[in-house]
Amino acid sequence: NEINAKIQITYGITFNSSNTFAQNYTTYTNDQKKKIAKVIHDFIILNSKYSFNAPDKLNQTMYPALSKGTQDPVCASYGHAFCWCCHKWGIPASVVLGLGDPVRADSYHLWSMACYTTKALPSSGNPWDNVVNKNTEWQEVDLTWDEYVSTDSSGHYLDLYPNDVMWRFFDKTTSEFTSSGHVRKMSNSSGAPVEN
Question: Which residues is 109 bridged to in the sheet?
Answer without folding.
Answer: 98
